[in-house]
Specification:
2 copies of one chain form a homodimer. Helices cover about 65% and strands about 0% of the residues of chain A. The longest helix of chain A is centred in the last third of the chain and has 22 residues. The structure holds a DNA duplex (30 and 30 nucleotides).
Chain lengths: ~190, ~190
DNA sequence: GAAGTTAGTAGACGCTTGTTTACTGGTCAA
DNA sequence: TTGACCAGTAAACAAGCGTCTACTAACTTC
């Protein structure tokens, strides 16, 4: 016993980063403790600060490692509502979807991460979405759609995967498509 | 100096309750400390537990003291979308609006208050709204509308009162009315 | 006026938090 | 083989948290 641990800087760093991503996603910023991360990553607590500086910087790195709304927006503008509806419905259903969005929602109340999250929402959702809209008041219309996205996330967190209890998935998607159309149309 | 304080059980209890309501609204459950409440209420920390048992019970009492969506839903069903739009737009603009909604949003990430908040959202927003809808899938349609309400609250918290930067208030209300119609129509 | 009740107070309790320090012992170049 | 480097560890740090206990003193009741 008292096994000796291998020395693996890059690997340990990655294990910590993965553990942090998972936990921040599931629990939000201030529900996650350094010791929780270290246990999940099977690494010593001190190594987190050694590799990432602080909890806040680790969180920032978790946010930064995510792509921006991966692929969701890469469709013709006319298909955007349907695409967003499918994305939101899928995220509600599967409880996974975009991990960062979940982390954002769960961490919005923490003043320490307020700035980080605002910038992330802007650069990952609001900005790209507005950029794909033609016509006037693109930012405003994108903001309304973003409200729906984050709100659905909040309710999903509150009520679980069956938050939107409709007879079937297609009903959910059709309804959300209509709502996103109302959000986005010029 | 060393002024003597008057003995006023009911008054002190109320001061604590008011302070708690204000702070929970502005900061959310776990950003608010007992000592912060006691300072705001100008009362000793121990009195909070004496009068309310625990922080959690105090929060529950704050939630309970609020009316359920005061007056917002008391209109014919056809006018509900416009009414909700005005309500949300006003809340965004003035930064105050429904204090409880704000507290709910800001406290949703805390597991300790998860149940309290879910019940409160159900009984104060989702339930009454669904009850006023005719046609099939009333709960589902009310849930979609609730998503927009909570999401708008989240974005308002994130970006401040100018989250929805439209040329004027009427533009915001018209857009939101259309979106709520898409959420609620049978 | 004396005794009992109780609002209000000060301070400590045990615990958890993020962070830091001092140290151990593998790894690798010279 | 020896020495410098550094991944990994254990323990402690100060600060903050919710909560509780022992106490003071102002009211009420007889």
């Amino acid at each position: 016993m008292d096994e000796v641990r291998q020395r693996d800087r890059a690997g340990t760093r990655r294990r910590i980063l993965d553990a942090a991503r998972k936990l921040f996603t599931e629990l939000g910023y201030d529900q996650v403790t350094m010791r929780l991360i270290s246990a999940e990553a099977d690494a010593n607590v001190a190594l987190i600060n050694r590799y990432f500086g602080s909890k806040r910087e680790l969180f920032a790195e978790v946010l930064a490692m995510q792509g921006r709304f991966p692929g969701v927006l890469d469709v013709p503008e006319a298909e955007l509502p349907r695409r967003l509806a499918e994305y939101v419905a899928e995220r509600l259903r599967s409880e996974r979807g975009s991990p960062v969005m979940a982390a954002l929602i769960r961490s919005a109340s923490c003043s320490e991460t307020h700035g980080l999250i605002r910038d992330r929402v802007s650069s990952a959702i609001l900005g790209p979405l507005a950029a794909r809209l033609s016509g006037p008041e693109a930012i405003f219309r994108a903001t309304v759609a973003t409200s729906l996205i984050t709100g659905a996330g909040t309710l999903s967190q509150l009520y679980g995967p069956d938050a939107f209890d409709a007879p079937d998935q297609e009903t959910v998607i059709r309804r959300l498509t209509a709502v996103f159309e109302a959000c986005l149309r010029a």
